[in-house]
Design brief:
heterodimer, A: 301 residues, alpha+beta, eight-stranded mixed β-sheet, 17 strands, B: 88 residues, three-stranded antiparallel β-sheet, 3 helices, 19% strand
């Protein structure tokens, strides 16, 4: 059952009872929360997500709670808990949604070592998946959002998931969080894009979450074959330019920004090597989003 | 020299990537460093013998395999635990 097929009041009740289980790519995420307006925002941004029957077996048992300190009367907060433990400091209560998003990222990065987890956006068109690995600040999320609002399938904005020994990228489509100037840039680029409110002054600046396209959610269990590894870099004043990157260099860059390459040892090495052998590898500098999308479109046509 | 079974190789054009099972470290190797290791995997050599073989291999390339270069390369490979230098 899709989230948007239920009334919001029902979702809020499921959340409060801890019977809210989302299927997000390969993960079952169980969430308990009694925070006003959270159900409405989750429904707005994850309306195409599959709601599962709680069986007690989930990958992550999460909770967003309001600490019962005196602070709740003058500056209320939300705390993120996983299996009853709180891995980081509470957020302002009205930042509960970004807290959920970051907390879930933290859980995946910390526990999901059945996958090689590359710090990479992954998008797909015409059956060809393109990995966009990059460090924060390189424009990865903005480029990823631009591509998915121009017809590419979103597999992930943050996690390039691949099972060791496999040659397929596993989708994990989620909201795309954009920061600061990128929010207006993407809203101008794709006025039809659905987004949540702007959360001001988070630890990453102002943040808004953009809804993943419906088709990407509908195909969220369908792996994709990687064909390109492209390291994007937003470079003001630069025409969109792809430059080939030697395989060994691409290997080191890709492995170097994985979440768990070292932890996986030889199987991580073999998996990255197979991925690089199967793909063309490039550096990509761009400024204008239209040009960038056009350039990447031409790769997969 | 690290035992051959301790090392996993992947090659791309002129460069290689090496995974050392003992340390779980991954190394990016130039063609010269890779050739040096592969030669030493086949047989033990002293610096002069190695430099001669490397000179044959890289004679016509921009990478002049001089004895001094090879010596420096061996020092680096030794620090990484990929070769063992035996004196005498």
């Amino acid at each position: 059952m899709k989230l948007n097929s239920l009334p919001c009041s029902k979702l809020a009740a499921l959340l409060a009872a801890g019977e809210f289980v989302l299927r997000m790519g390969p993960f079952f995420v169980q969430l308990k929360a009694d925070i006003d307006d959270l159900a409405e925002l989750i429904q707005r941004l994850y309306g195409d997500c599959q709601l599962e029957t709680p069986t007690g077996i989930s990958d992550f048992h999460l909770r967003l709670s309001k600490p019962r300190s005196l602070r709740r009367f003058y500056r209320p907060q939300a705390r993120f808990l996983v299996d009853g433990h709180s891995p980081f400091a509470a957020f302002p209560l009205d930042h509960a949604f970004p807290l959920f998003e970051w907390g879930l990222n933290w859980c995946v990065a910390s526990y999901s070592h059945q996958f090689l987890m590359l710090h990479s956006a992954v998008v797909e068109k015409n059956g060809k998946a393109v990995l966009l690995p990059a460090w924060p600040g390189s424009g990865k999320s903005t480029l990823c959002a631009a591509l998915v609002y121009r017809g590419w399938r979103l597999l992930s904005d943050e996690f390039g998931l691949i099972r060791p020994g496999s040659d397929a990228m596993i989708p994990f489509p989620r909201c795309i969080p954009l920061k600061n100037e990128s929010i207006a840039i993407l809203s101008d680029f794709a006025p039809e894009a659905v987004s949540g409110p702007i959360f001001p002054r988070t630890r990453k600046g102002d943040v808004a979450h953009f809804k993943p396209p419906t088709e990407s959610m509908q195909r969220s269990t369908e792996p994709a074959t990687p064909r390109f590894v492209i390291f994007p870099r937003y470079t003001p004043g630069q025409r969109a330019t792809l430059r080939p990157l030697a395989g060994a260099r691409a290997f080191m860059k890709l492995a170097g920004n994985a979440f768990n390459y070292e932890l996986l040892g030889e199987s991580g090495f073999r998996t990255v090597a197979a991925l690089i052998h199967a793909c063309d590898t490039c550096l990509f500098h761009y400024d204008d989003l239209d040009q960038a999308v056009q350039t990447l479109d031409s790769l997969v046509e | 020299m690290a035992a051959p079974e301790a090392l996993c190789w992947e090659h791309w054009d002129e460069e290689s990537v090496l995974f050392d099972r003992r340390s779980s470290q991954t190394h990016l190797l130039t063609a010269m460093a890779a050739e040096c290791l592969l030669l030493l995997q086949k047989e033990d050599m002293n610096l002069e013998q190695l430099a001669e073989k490397m000179g044959e291999r890289f004679h016509s390339t921009p990478q002049q395999a001089t004895q001094k270069q090879i010596g420096q390369l061996l020092l680096t490979l030794n620090e990484l635990g990929l070769v063992i230098t035996v004196s005498g």
